[in-house]
Specification:
Distance between the termini of chain A: 94 Å
Strand content of chain B: 5-15%
Order of helices and strands of chain B: EHEHEHHEHEHHHEHHEHHHHEHEH
Number of strands of chain A: 32
Helix content of chain B: 40-55%
Structural class of chain B: alpha/beta
Number of helices of chain A: 35
Radius of gyration of chain A: 30 Å
Strand content of chain A: 15-25%
Strand order of the largest sheet of chain B: 3-2-4-5
CATH class of one domain in chain B: Alpha Beta
Oligomer: heterodimer
Amino acid sequence: MAKLLGIDVGSTTVKVSVIDETGEVLYSSYERHFSRVKECVLGELKKVRSFSASYKACVTGSAGLGLSERSKLGFVQEVQAAFIAIRKYYPDADVAVELGGEDAKIIFLTGGAEQRMNGSCAGGTGAFIDQMATLLDLSVDEMDELSLQAERVYPIASRCGVFAKSDIQPLLNQGAKKSDVAASIFHAVVDQTVSGLAQGRRIKGKVLFLGGPLYYLKGLRKAFCETLGLDGEHAIFPENGPKFMSLGAALYAENMQEEPIDDMISRLESAKEGGEITLGEPLFASQQEYSDFIARHMRSDLSFENIYKYEGDAYLGIDSGSTTTKLLLITPDCKILYSHYQSNNGQPLEIVVGRLREIYSLIGNRINIRGACVTGYGEDMLRAALKIDFGVVETMAHFKAALYFNPDVDFIIDIGGQDIKCFKVKNRAIDSIMLNEACSSGCGSFIQTFAKAMGMEIEPFSRLGLFAKHPVELGSRCTVFMNSSVKQAQKEGASIEDISAGLSSSIVKNAIYKVIRARTPEELGEHIVVQGGTFLNDAVLRSFEKETGKEVVRPAIAGLMGAFGAALYARENTSSGVLTSSILTEAELSRFAYSSRSVICKGCTSHCNVNILTFADGRKFISGNKCEKGAGLKPSRTVSDVYTFKYESLLSLPDGAAAGTRGTVGLPLQLVMYEQLPLWVEFFEQCGFRVVLSEKSSRALYFKGQHTVASDTACYPAKLMHGHIESLLDKGVDFIFYPCESYNLDEHDSANHYNCPVVAYYPELLKANNERLTRENFIMPYLDLNSEKATVHTLTRALGRYKLPASLVKRAFRAGISRMQEFHARIVEKGREILAEAEREEKQVIILAGRPYHADPEINHGINKLLTSLGIAVLSEDSIFEQGNDVKVNVLNQWTYHARLYRAAEYATRHRNVNLVQLVSFGCGIDAITTDEVRHILESKGKLYTQIKIDEITGLGVVKIRLRSLLAAIEESGRGEDDHA
Amino acid sequence: MRKQPLQEERPVLDFTDDYPVFTHAMKDTHTILVPDMLPWHFDLLAYILRLHGYRVEVLHNEGRAVIDEGLKHVHNDACYPALCVIGQFLDALKSGKYDPDKTAVMITQTGGGCRASNYLPLIRKALKAEFPQVPVLSFNVSGLEKDSGFEMSLGLILEFAYAVFYGDLIMSLYNQTAPYEKRAGEAAQVRQSCLDALKPQFAKGSYRKFAKHAREIIAAFSAIPVTGEKKIKVGIVGEIYVKYSPLANSHLEEFLLHENCEPVVPSLMDFLLYCAVNPLNDAKFYEKKSRSTFLFRFVYKWVYGKQKKLNHLLAKSKFEPMHDFERLRVLADKVINQGVKMGEGWLIPAEMSALCETGVSDIICVQPFGCLPNHIAGKGASRAVKALYPKANIVPVDYDPSATKVNQENRIKLMLATARENRK
């Protein structure tokens, strides 16, 4: 017998174990490889030479496959390796959960062995935790420590890092405690594991937790135990957890040939680097080319004025961005007196206060801050806290700044830490705005996170890319995908230089092809200004120029453009009568102090997490609220919002008056029920049933059904349906009624009248994945409401056990249909009222166009209320589309709900005060088609198009910026029209 | 329902872009590019179209350039097949091999409730940016895109039907032989010679001697010396394009051969029968009867008859027969309602069940990332299939431009590891 050697090569670490003839573990190690896989493995092999001159060896792990192929070592799939080790060391375990650097796995051992791995779009792994720690500016260990002191847990989207960020950033900016956020992050990882991997199977019994993160992070362990309800006896965290797979590999090596370790080492040393990756061109061919490039960009610069000598007025601009805070103090002729750029570490207020104190100490009595303006995520809070004169939406600020550098500018692109903003400019006004979707925001902070993962600072890391010989192609999607591309490139032996250059180029491609969605570089425009901190990175700038084939303007203050724009805004808008800014004076600032606390608003059913900042002088600032109520204001008297009206009307439909002699029927209020609830309530009441509705949608309800979700990339409304079903089952109804409908109502305005596949057949998925559903308690007939005869026939049969006479079914169905028509008429009527009122009061109207089920506040996240709080009247697509003309579109117009979108858009094109904002559920494949058409309809008639993607994310920060930008642009274009008139 | 069906004519506003139409005259001047889906079937189909005077060429270009073109021209959330097809067209048009002024492209449309019916407008949009002169032909039997439609004749449809049968037969026999052949490459040679032998039959019009040609093909494959070893059979089901197209599924069949497995790929004809039977189901469920219902019933019966005949011949040989379509319907009913008819719908769980029944319990279910029908019928239904066939070992694999091969292969290897574990 020989000694056994197991090598586990993961995405971030190498683990090695040696087992001797008696089964005793002689050696095991856990090393980060910083993508130098080969060197790291070689080092370990040389170490284990001391135990034996020859081994039976086997490799496992996600990055181990290529290594084993090239060095001709045996390979075992990592889950299988885990299987073997579990059988040996923990034969009584029921389930094993393993989190690694970039993957997550669950192995069900008893009751039908099954193995699951995370999908290609899944965070919830070690890399995700690293990314989040970076965001909090903590080391992973610090984050873990903090999490143990948490007092509350916030809901954070767990599907991928990008989503989670958009939840976390607003929390930080609003002053939520880092300890609470840290704990919330761990809970998000657990939720992801439970919903994304378990997919309908419960994790119960004796659970084994494996892998580095679960071994090292106490907070994560705690979150798992809490969520799964495991006690110390059932949750096992093995001492050798992080190295478990390498033990499995070693055990599996029993099947291998014994050979001298020196042979393995020499084979590995001479192993070729693979050639499967696609390579790009170097960014610069020569040093000369680089120098020319630098010299060209030096030209776009502002000049400086000496803050110690200058006397007179100055304007202050503050840009409180998602990850960084920027301040700029300029003279009236735009010379820089003072500038500051800093990562905000989740504490924007403290940073601005500190800098402001510094400015006051520098300017003495010589310089008078005449006006100040703030922009960015922290705008409202900073403005309130520091009594700043103006606030401007960040898109406008950036536009103003770009205009200063190039009055002919027709295209602006800003890549910041977390977002990408692009504007097309026509006639010196913003013509269209594109912001990145939550899904494609692999922006600047991604390079930063990656640099850290490589153990480097961002600047030296990106400089490495400048002269890389063969930049790797890493794809152009979201960060999670890029992570796996990087993994692949590393596997193939790409150098850090090549990866660095590849990352720069993928950020650029992501921006051009995914955010701007340009088909050719010419579409962008002639005079391009690039800005945002990410463009200070020369590798990114160069990649952008190479990809577009254009020379662009990058101001030297690219990272400060928001602040510069804000300062310009203050300069433009300070009236001559105002001699000094209202911003806190030096004296006031010295007394400035605040405290923060968070509460749950009980104003309505949304239960927003509201954050209250209390300042030393007794003033308060409230954030996190979705409507006026949370801010302590009285809601307006009338509801000028169809969404709220519709939702409340639907909830009041089953009035409980029906006797229900035949029994109780449960209707899940989600997806198609948002349209057909009146029909089925009336139908079942007429047939003698009592109707019970599922609970209102909420995050908690979603978690209730999460364990039965089969496909984690389905849309949020569909995934919520699982919770609604659980809720009805818990309510103990006699049966749940939820029909399958290939066809929707024929509204005679499209080539066909399908439902989307998810809406049409979701009951099938529920039946197959929720073991509590049976033939008896779940009735899901296939119906086509357009055919009364077939529907009555099918319903009579489906409800066969109640022996309803067909005549009754028919009568009830007809009554239901007319109830639904009446209901719809009320929605339309409400829409008319709102329109008329808006007309009278000269208010802007926005058609929030989506699907009927977007009326659910858990799905629309209160965007309707956000709009009304901005003074906008809100219509829904179903309240207005009948006033739109029929349209012929480029695509096949064959879905009922989607045909409504086109007609609603057509209506908007004919009305000056009406605009349309399209709500799109993340993962809706059909909207990939409709959005382009709706945009086309609106833009062909000179209207702005705005799309908002919604998912589990609750933070409305980005949405608010987008809507305010839209309103600002509408206002500007309105001004333009008046000028022409 | 809400509005009365009979209503005054409402005005229709036209928001469509202009696009070039494939005119009759172009038949003589234009090369028609066809995307690659089933390399061997399409070889035969393209040959038939050429016999009918269309200058057709099946594309085989691959690689990162194809995917990059697709990424540039297709919406982020649109599905992967659209991206592959469009990428392939644009990459070909840019290759310099074709004169864009004398080139058209062709795509199939089923007209179902899945967004796949919208590939054609997506292609048109993509071409508009760079090759606005290139017309798009629609190959469909639903009467869509009348101005750019392909002129369907009964003769052509008949020839296609036979070609699909022959293609399925050759594909199936190849997959059953190649993993076991004693002399490497022999099965591939036989595959080519069978195709070469079939082509003149179409030219002569004697392609309808179905039993004769089928017997010859079976004989040719039977003659290949094989080793007789036992290998793991792996079924491939899922979205139609990704299931068959090597470009989309990263050469999945070859990968399985390399992993010492026998790939079992259900036949294309089953999908066509599925398309034919859905209107019949609609007629039954929703009283949606029309003149075409009768036609579909007739076509269905005729094709199904041929399928039975072919399976009868196979049953007498040493090879496994292909799935029987009526059996697929019976199996579907145990898992999912046949009303699930968008995309590949109920066919996916039906094929999973049929594979399990015939001892192929290790299955890869392929789909484009975020494929809507597959949420329900693929990932959603596999739990129900597993309940019926406890041995079933099903792995869903997502394909998209950025899902790396490592990730996909790792997942498949995991499934294979379980398969080997189960064999013990």
